[in-house]
Structure formats: C-alpha cells, structure tokens
Amino acid sequence: MDVVIWSRIQFAMTAAYHWLFVPLTLGLALVMAVMETLYVVKKDPFWKKTAQFWIKLFAINFAVGIATGIILEFEFGTNWSNYSWFVGDMFGAPLAIEGILAFFMEATFFAVMFFGWEKVSPKFHLASTWLTGIGATISAYWILVANGWMQNPVGTTFNPDTVRSEMASAAAFWEVVTNPVAVSKFFHSVTSGWVTGGVFVVGVSAWYLLKGREKHFALKSILVGGLVGLAGSAAVMLSGDASGIHAAEFQPMKLAAAEGLEDGGKGAAFTIVPGIKVPHMLSLLATHDWNGYVPGINDILRGYTDNDGNVIPSVADKMAMGRTALDALATYRANRDTNPEVAAAAKAVLNANVQYMGYGHLEKPEDVIPPVGVVFWAFRFMVGLGMLLALVLLLTVWFAWKGKLEGYRWLLWTAIWCIPLVYICGQSGWIVAEVGRQPWTIQGLLPVNVAISSLSAGAVKTTFFVFLAVFALFLVIEIRIMLRAIRKGPEVEPGNA
Amino acid sequence: MLSIWEFYRDGFRNMTWGRPLIWLILLKIFILFAILRLFFFKPAMRGLTDEQKSELVGAHLTEKTLSHTDTLTFN
C-alpha cells in the first residue's frame, strides 16, 4: 500500500476513535442537564443523585476522549501538509474559533459542574451543566463548518500567489459559516449524539433492571434518556432528509454511490437492499419531487442536465478544464515576476476554470467514483440500525411508562445490545460521508493524492501502529473505569468529584 | 482571583473517584505532546517561510501538468 492509503487509514482510524467519545459527550450532556433541571425545579434529592451518577459517566468519557481530536491536527501538519497549506484560512479560522471560544467555555463550566456541587448555588451549578453541553455543541458546530467546507467549498477565492484558499470578505466568512452542508451535518451529527446518549442511558439502566438493582433510578433514567434518544431520532431523520437533498445538489456522486445507482433518471427508485426497490422514492428523497431527476454514476461520468436546467459537464470535460486551470497556474507562477501580460492572461484562464482545478489531477474519469460497495452498505447499516434503535427506544419508554418494562427481559437485553449498535450506526454514517466523497479532500479542488505530504509509506505505517497501540490501551482503560462505575451504581457522595 | 484559585485547589484536593481521571488525562497529554508530537509527528513544512511553502505546494499542484503547457498559449 502506498503513502496515500496508509495516511487515509491512519486518519480514518483517528477520526473514528475520536467519534467514539464525541457523540456520548453530546448526548449525555443533554440527559444530565435535563435530570439536574428536574432536581432544581422539583427540589427532589433523587434527581440530584441521578444527575450526579450520569455526570460521573460523562466525566469518564470526557477524560478519555479529551485531546483525541488534537491528533487529527498533528496528522494535518505531518501527513497532509499540501492540504493544510492549500486550505489556508478556510480551515484554520473555524478551528481557531472552536479552540478559543467553545473549548474554553466547555472546560470552564465543566470544572464548575465537576467541583461545584457544594460550592455554588444549585441554579448556578445547573447553568454550568447546561453550558458544558452547549459548549460541546458549539465546538461541534465549528468543526463541522470546517468539514462542511471540504464537502462544499463555498465562500473561497483561490490565490495563485500564495497557493491558498482565502476568504475574500466578511460576506465570504458568513457564507462559510452558513454553508448548507455544514448546517445539515451539524444537526445530523449532534442529534445522532442525543440518540447515542439516550441509548447508552437506556442500556445501562436496563442492565440494572436485569440485575434487580436500582429499580426506581433505572426506570426514571430510562424515561429521561429514552425521550432524549427519541427526540434525537426524530431530529436525525429530519436532518438526514436535508443531508440527502444537499448530497444530491453538491455531491451527486456520493448519493449515486450510496444508492449503487449506475444509471439514473426521473422517478428513480430507492434500493432498500439489492433486489428490493421502492419506486420513485429516491427521487422524492433526493429532490422532494416524485419525478425529480437523479443522476447515476454513468450519467455523472457522461454529463447531464439537472432539475434546474443546468448542464453539468462530463467528467472528461471537467478534467480538460482542470488541466487548463493547472497549466494556467503554472504559467502564471512562472511569469508573474518577468512577464506581467502573460501572467495576467494566465490568471484569467485560471479563474475561469478554477472550480474544476482538482479534476486536472485525475488520470481517468472513473477516478471520481468512490468505493461503491462500502458506501452502499454503510448507508444501509446507518439507516437500518437507526430505525432499530428508534424502535427499541420507543418500546422501552412505552413499557417503562406503563410500569411493565421489567416483564420484558428480551427487550432489556436488546437495549443493552443497542449500546454497541449505536456506535456502529454513527461510524457507518461517517463512512458514508467521508468514503462517499473520495477521491476528494476538498470537493472538486484537491484530490487525496495531491493533498498528501512527501513522506514514506513506512513512516506513516510506523505511526499507524503506534497509534493503534496507544488508542487500544486508552480504550481498554476507559471501558474498565466505566464498567467499574456502572457496577458500583448511583451512590455518589454529594460534594465529591 | 483568589476565590477561583481556592475553588480549583479545593476541588482537586477533595477529589475521590475523579483523581484517577486527572492522572489519565495528564498521562495522555504527556504521551501526545512529549512523545508522539515530538518524535513521530513533525510538521512536514516546519522551518519553511510562507513563500517557500507556496513554492513547494505550487510545485506539487502543477508538476503533473507540465506536459500540457506546450499545448496552450496565454497571450
């Protein structure tokens, strides 16, 4: 395997590892904030004890997850240095805002939440608990602004002198911040975190019920956690619908790969699994029109006319325009100091073709097709598991509400097994998003093989296995600490962190 | 300021189940920054000026297209 493949595997492993901790942080933050609100409103010490237990599990997850995202930034500088330089402010600004504003907000209020039970008033503590969760959510927003820009690079101007993407104005910054792909991705990711938090709380509580322990605590936790999870499931479906529309508009190849759609058309059918199709459903999901046109892989390769009447060039034509842009860039840079007229003409050619610049690096049109099988099945795992999780949450909440849950031991076992399943579901979603956009690091502008640093595959392989060992060690430590805390149960002494 | 200092000092001193988590965080930060960052993840363009970085990335971007330049004219 070459350096690009090893670097991609390493980055994928780091991102997947980071995403083990983030969704539980986002979801548990909401669950524990709701529980503490019940304590402050009802002045019932039961809710204080309940909130303290889930805050303890939140803290364990937070402690092991903290700084795992920083490793991604190490990899940007070492493995993806061309990319890091090329993205310039477009990536640096959102990450800097995330680091300065959201992280410090999260860290400050986390300390009050962690140490402050007996030091600050209940209302101030409650505000800190909410602000910890809000800080984590804002943090996620800025990260997803950066990721959304890679999927749909809006508000950018390519500067041939610096070879960087730049934000030309405040309006461009606003365009980046409100990028529709970032917005839908944010809601989809954060609310999937609520599902993770809900499923985790319900699963752990189900274990107590199966053990005949902490019955009142477990049933109340299931009601709060289950309702948060169900709210998350509903929001995930709505934001998933928006993500589908945006994929159709900005990344049609990703959508075609997720559907395994070789030849598209009007009134396109949705494939549930190979051989079982729902007529017109794909058109409805992708365009909100029963007969909307959805391009397949071959249509994208050949070129097509979209639903607004825009003629989308073939990939071969885009490659030609991309090569023109790259040649113009080379000519501009070679002549800018010695021959201003040639440089100005080259710059005009570059600007006219810059949106297809990345295509100039491709060797053949088929290079734009991502691994279809991986994306197709990851999408089905994500949707299928998401529906299963919503059903299990609905049933557990319903039977807990009716006071009959303990009689359904199969459902309690299912709720426990849903904990690993919710992680598989979330990881599948990211596989669809990230494998589906291959070969691009930045859609249409920079393919992975040009984004890479000049490194040897051996060096990346070494760091990959070092990371694997370190990550595995910390994951084992987290699971052990978490299981010990769960076995001990909700007996937290007030005032002690 | 003093009360903030005391808040953190007392918080750390009175920790029970949280103490191993703090050690875990410190250990991880040490591994990340003092070992991985220092020995395994050196920035590929460290030491270069911005101009040199532009030249390097510009060369990487355009090197594959040099064969096409003779087919185009820009004046």
Tell me what the structure shows.
The complex is a heterodimer of chains A (497) and B (75). By secondary structure, chain A is mainly alpha-helical. Chain A contains 18 helices and ten strands. In chain A, the strands form five sheets. Chain A has a two-stranded antiparallel ribbon with strand order 1-2. Chain A is globular. With 75 residues, chain B is mainly alpha-helical. Chain B has one domain. In chain B, 63% of the residues lie in helices and 0% in strands. The N and C termini of chain B lie far apart (67 Å).
Topology:
The complex is a heterodimer of chains A (497) and B (75).
Chain A: H1 3-42, H2 45-65, H3 68-78, H4 81-87, H5 89-115, H6 122-151, E1 157-159, E2 164-166, H7 170-177, H8 180-211, H9 215-250, H10 252-259, E3 265-266, E4 270-273, E5 276-278, H11 281-287, E6 293-294, H12 297-302, E7 304-305, E8 311-312, H13 315-335, H14 340-353, H15 372-402, H16 409-435, E9 440-442, E10 446-447, H17 448-451, H18 457-488
Antiparallel strand pairs in A: 1-2, 3-6, 4-5, 7-8, 9-10
Chain B: H1 2-13, H2 19-40, H3 50-62
* Unreliable parts of chain B: 65-75
Number of domains of chain A: 2
Overall number of strands of chain A = 10
Radius of gyration of chain A, taken over Cα atoms and rounded to an integer in Å: 25 Å
How would you characterize the largest beta sheet of chain B?
none
Largest inter-chain interface?
A-B, 61 and 44 residues
Helical proportion of chain B? Answer: 55-70%
Helix and strand element order of chain B: HHH
Number of helices of chain B: 3
Q: Average pLDDT value of chain A?
A: 92
Q: Tell me the number of strands of chain B.
A: 0
Quaternary assembly: heterodimer
Structural class of chain A: mainly alpha
For the termini of chain A, the CA-CA separation is: 48 Å
Order of strands, main sheet of chain A, comes to: 1-2
Low-confidence stretches of chain A: none
Strand percent estimate of chain A: 5-15%
General shape of chain B: elongated
